[in-house]
Design brief:
heterodimer, A: alpha/beta, globular, B: 177 residues, 7-stranded antiparallel β-sheet
């Protein structure tokens, strides 16, 4: 009885040890992308779901504000900016909203545990030619205090940090 | 004697009330719409209150600290929606959170309905900007109508717009707790 228990424990441990590197490989970050001196942010799209206009605009504006705040890029261009055409090493950020739950500020304030607002956004960074260099799913949420639009700020901070860590030519802001 | 003094006091009271009421009636803005700029205008801080006007072919937002003008022909989209906000907000709203016996939670039940006005426009370099304003209930739709009549474009025509009252899209509605 003791022997079989010993063998089972050993087997579980061995399986765990074998599985660990595979998991580590799966979570390994994508290879470091090339550095860029400028970034262009395109208007946030939502193909699959209906996103209120105020959230779309707030995502876009907060992204630009946070990228400028983080530093590391000489220029942060908006969609359609003619100056971006002349930028040599430019990365373009495409953001597509894939999940959205508009919570309820009153419910959050009253109950603390319900009424969460969350936004799931697929971020794709491409080079000037449109070739994808980095893709990541990020989310923004507001769980306790603040209005629903605060979720867009949460997302923007995460996206700006990702862009900064992956592409900023001058990482020290 | 007593009656006379009471009459005098009443006249005095009414005269004071009249003086305080008159300026508020006189200050009713005819043209400008009171609005709060949530985000988007260059050079204006977030959550700045001011007046939105349409003057000389441009949309102007004037607050105590800044005045920003956006040419109406550069406005590519105007959308109105509904929302609600806490009556006690800002610093006072934050302070109420610390009220004892759940007082803050109780006060957060008091909410006022508002209209939101969202615009997209391009600057002289062709760069796309967005701006969000909140306005008193029922003010956004007439303002949008004026904007569109003066040359602004919209992706949602007035009759189909979520607007302030009737047809609200599912996404724009707040879920009940």
């Amino acid at each position: 009885m003791k022997r079989s228990l010993y063998i089972t424990t050993l087997a579980v441990l061995l399986v765990g040890i074998h599985a660990a590197p595979a998991r580590l490989l799966a979570q390994a970050p994508t290879p470091p992308a090339k550095k860029a001196s400028a970034i262009q942010v395109l208007m946030v799209t939502s193909d699959e779901i209906k996103l209120p206009a105020e959230f779309q605009i707030s995502l876009y504006e907060n992204l630009i504000q946070q990228l400028e705040k983080q530093g590391g890029f000489q220029h942060v261009y908006r969609e359609g900016d003619h100056h971006a055409d002349g930028a040599a090493d430019l990365v373009v950020l495409h953001s597509n909203v894939r999940g959205f739950k508009k919570g309820n500020e009153m419910a959050r304030n009253v109950t603390t545990v319900t009424g969460k607002t969350s936004i799931d956004v697929h971020c794709q960074f491409t080079d000037k030619d449109g070739k994808s260099v980095l893709e990541r799913d990020l989310n923004g949420k507001v769980q306790f205090f603040g209005g629903n639009l605060r979720a867009t700020l949460d997302f923007a901070k995460k996206a700006a940090k990702l862009a900064h860590d992956s592409f900023a030519a001058n990482p020290v802001s | 004697m007593v009656l006379r003094s009471m009459r005098r006091a009443t006249i005095f009271l009414f005269s004071i009330l009249g003086f305080t009421a008159l300026p508020s009636v006189a200050q009713q803005p005819a043209g400008p719409n009171k609005a709060v700029q949530i985000t988007g205008l260059v050079g204006v801080k977030t959550n700045t209150s001011g007046n939105l006007t349409l003057e000389n072919g441009s949309l102007q937002f004037a607050s105590s600290g800044a005045k920003v003008s956006v040419p109406i022909h550069s406005v590519e989209d105007v959308i109105t929606e509904n929302d609600s906000q806490r009556v006690f907000r800002g610093t006072l709203g934050t302070l109420t959170m610390f009220a004892p016996y759940g007082g803050g939670r109780f006060l957060s039940l008091f909410r006022s309905k508002i209209d939101t006005l969202t615009i997209q426009y391009r600057d002289t370099d062709g760069a796309l900007h967005g701006a969000i304003f909140t306005m008193p209930l029922g003010k956004a739709d007439p303002f949008k109508k004026d904007l569109v009549s003066q040359g602004a474009r919209t992706s949602i025509p007035m009759q189909d717009d979520s607007g302030s009252s009737k047809a609200k899209p599912e996404a724009a509605k707040e879920k009940k707790p």
